[in-house]
Structures are given as structure tokens and as C-alpha cells.
């Protein structure tokens, strides 16, 4: 568990830390270590690799290629300078089924989904010259790569037949707003009252005092303010739902101060001109009744409010950090774990609202799975999702999904059971110390 904790804390520390001094400094010197690009093709397939427009890439083409290409968009890699490329997580299935796949390292790191979208699309075009023009191209990706997938699907609908964003940052800036919600709410409710942006001693001094103010043993034993905080976090991250309890304990106990660590940045993103965070428009709740109790009123009056720079969140095509607009013209099937508090389930709800507002709800099907992790899908879950997307695109058989916008459906104890793989072992089955996070079982199929 130490390794997992270390990884999470490193990711947290790296995220959203963009000192203002960097703005005037020279652009980061990103590089690809070409010695790390070669990989061994699966039996009967051909492996290609190289550098295109400053981004490393890998391509794998089975000898019995079915003419179809599946692009892979990777997630956030931190702010380091080395650019690295993934194999597609469904590589074995794809190659065995005749699909080629291709993945780009992107030519930049940091939270820059615009660059990821441009480099991924450039690789799609490069594939034509290297291998041949595919009959169908699918765009798939995870986490920040889900944001990339959303951008690619909306920007170039004529080049892609279907999209599969998983655990995706489909609500773009709303994710960073959630990190703000978590941290300013904890400050206010704990009585520590330190205001954003936080000092250098945030994680060492402020956070321990904050947790002490929320109960005798945060996150396990909470006082009344701590319980209000937990409720607020649930409501801001997707609403009352199964797996929130396990997610709360995983992300606040097993992962240490991960969510507090996401509050240490200064509220800027690499391509956004200005401060991007906003909660000035939020009415916070401790319960599902829209009426405000005295405690909710007091909290709304006292919690720190910040407003984004209007330029920072302006839609400027793929020039800045592009929002997903809901202008979705191709079949898109998503997957998201219910207890994820790094990229929470409300990302799916935000995107569903945007897509519906643009009259494109018929192009979006969303599915929930029962896990507390971030992108912790099983192989069978990913294969099922991809297979159902292909059936939709190529056979016109629209897949069923979950109604992510119906709070009663989402709150049902069995929500997420339909598309959860109930056979493969999960982390709570394999790591004895995490057995306490075992969620309630689903009804047998
Ligand atoms: Ca209320």
C-alpha cells in the first residue's frame, strides 16, 4: 500500500501546481526517449513506433487487420519533461479481434488536453501514410485522456465513428472546481478558516488541524461539522450513490491527504489565461432538500468564494483548455466508477447535461461501475464497453446505459450493478488490508 500511497501523493503534488513564475519562463523542454519506444508485437502482429511532431507513438497492426483503427488517449502524466507512450489497455483483445491500435505520448505533459487532442488526431492521420487508410476509426481514452477523447469526438466527427471515454474529465473545469469545493469547505467547517490559495505549510500544518476539526478520527469518526463536510462532498461529486462510502474512506484514509493535496495549486492551468476556479455560483448543500437549513445558510455565507477570470474559461476552440461543449455528433459510450473521488462521477452528469442541452442526447450512453478507484475497470468491463460501442456504430444496435441524471436511480442501492463485472477480483478481494472497503454485493445475474 505504501507504493500506491506514494504514487497518489506524487500525482496530487504534481497536479495544479503551476507557479506564476513559470508564465514568463521559457517553455518546458519536453522530450521523448526514443530508446523506450520499441516494443514487441504480439504473435501475428506488426509493431511500429517513432516520433511525429514532437510526440512519441506506438502502433500495432495484426496481420489479419480488419481495416479498423482504435486510438488511445492516455491520462495525466504530471509536469515532468519526459513524454511516454502507453500500449492500449485492450491491446490483446484488439489484436486478437483484428483491430489496429495507435497511441501518442502527446508532445507536452501537464494538464493540456488540447495538445493531447491535436497530437492524437495527427497520429490518426499519420497512420494513413504508415499503414493505410482505415475504414473506421474509434477514439478511446482514460481520465484526462477521456477529456481528450471528448474533444476529439466533438472537433473531428467526420474522422471518427465512435468514442469511448472512460473515467473521463468530461466536465473539464468542473473537476478543478470540485477540488476547490473540497478544500474550502473543509477549511470552513473545521473552523481552521485558512483561505485559498494556501501557504507552503498547507499540507504539514493546515491540513492536520483541518482534519482534527472535523472529528476525532477523520475520515472514520466525524463530528457534526465533519458529517456535513462528508455530505457536501458526496453531493458535489455526483450525489447520493452506492460506493461513495468506500470512496470516501479510500480517498481520505488509504490515499492519505490526496484530496487536500489537490488544493495546493494556485488555480491556473497551463493553457488557460488566468485563474480558472470558481465557486461563486454554487449553493452548497448538506442534504438533498433544496431548501437551506440554518447550518447550510451559515455555511454558504461564510465559505470562501472565488470567481474565475472570464478569459480563463472562455471557449476558444482547441486553443486553451477546451471545454467539452456537448456538440457530440458520433456515438459515445462512457464508463465511470461510482466511488472515484479523483475524477468523480459528477463529470458524467455534467457532460450529460451539456449533450442534452445541445440536442445530442441520442449520441451519448453512459454506464456506472461499482468500484472506489480511479479508472479501476476490469478487462471484461472494458471489452464489453468497446464491443457494445462497435455494435452501435456498425450494426445500429444502440446499447443500454444508466440514467446518470436521475437522482433516485443513482441513489438506488443496486445502481451500477448492471455493467459491473461481478467475477474478476477487485482490490478489496486481493489486498487483505482493504477488505474493509468491500462494497455491498449486487444481486446475482
Ligand atoms: Ca438543504
Q: How would you sum up this structure, described in words?
A:
The protein has 445 residues and is an alpha/beta fold. The protein has two domains: 2-16 and 174-302, no CATH class; 31-172 and 317-428, 3-Layer(aba) Sandwich (Rossmann fold), CATH 3.40.50.1820. Helix content is 35%, strand content 12%. It has helices at 2-14, 91-96, 113-130, 144-155, 173-190, 202-213, 224-236, 244-254, 258-261, 294-302, 346-357, 379-395, 407-411, 427-430; strands at residues 31-32, 45-52, 55-62, 68-73, 82-83, 100-104, 136-142, 162-166, 332-337, 364-369. The strands form two sheets. An eight-stranded mixed sheet has the order 2-3-6-4-7-8-9-10, sandwiched between helices. The chain has a two-stranded parallel sheet with strand order 1-5. Strand 9 (332-337), helix 11 and strand 10 (364-369) form a beta-alpha-beta unit. The protein is globular, with a radius of gyration of 22 Å. The structure holds calcium ion. Residues 285, 287, 289, 291-293, 296 line the site of calcium ion.
